[in-house]
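Hello again, I could really use a second opinion on something today. I've dropped the whole record in just underneath, so have a look.
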Amino acid sequence: MTEQQVLSVLVEDKPGVLARISSLFARRGFNIHSLAVGPAADPGLSKMTIVVEAPELEQVKKQLHKLVNVVKITEMDAGSAIEREIMLVRVRAGARQRSEVLQLAAIFRATPVDVGVDSITFMVTGSPAKLNDLLELIRPFGLVDLVKSGRIALNREPKARKLRAVG
């Protein structure tokens, strides 16, 4: 399996930008695993977080830079980025399993948002690894339905300032 890469792309908030960017990846034969788009800090701009399965992104980044509405591209390092997703998951939970499912979900800070006769729906946010861990543990109870947002990410800020040598 090809490694997943995370790109943050700052774009002008214009019609057709998403279509042009996604078609660029499709033409190269890269599978977009996750795509999230929302407003950026600056008015008139949007930030796209693209998780793509690709062995090498240099050529794609060069082609993205050529697109008219692309302002900036940042490749995120797995260790230096804050990554989050939101998930809604409906789990089979009859009367016998209900307390066990609730206790397990509480460990992951999953919030029950709907309770039915035979199921509970949880909302949980966190890193992709956290959400995957929860899914693996509740899967034996029976997944009824599942939806995840696209991954969003920001680079972490440095924790200390670099000191300059004097002299």
Remarks:
- The two ends are 51 Å apart (CA to CA).
